[in-house]
């Protein structure tokens, strides 16, 4: 049940992987603006890197599911706990680490369709 040193290292590496993508998305994230194309691409690259890491770790028979669960589950728990208990020193870092890299995906959610029916 306890997390081994090897798993702690993997979780720390996941956090370190998130930080550059959080910095790229930070300006839009902080002000609540619609992300730029560059920020959207950085979020896609972040997800692709996660996918590649998951593939390589699964090939090596490592516990990618457990590590990912600890990382994303821990982030969700810290975010909810910080938000509902109004504990800013937990909530803000948790959102920056876990939601920040994915903020660029909002670009695709706010785009209107340019498709028109032919006459």
UniProtKB/TrEMBL annotation:
Origin superkingdom: Bacteria
Keywords attached to this Swiss-Prot or TrEMBL record, sorted alphabetically, are:
Membrane, Transmembrane, Transmembrane helix
Q: Does the keyword Transmembrane helix apply?
A: yes
Give the residue spans that cross the bilayer. 36-55, 67-84, 90-109
- Protein name, per record: Uncharacterized protein
Source organism per UniProt: Paenibacillus albidus
Query: Taxonomy-wise, where does this protein's organism fall, top ranks first?
Result: Bacteria, Bacillati, Bacillota, Bacilli, Bacillales
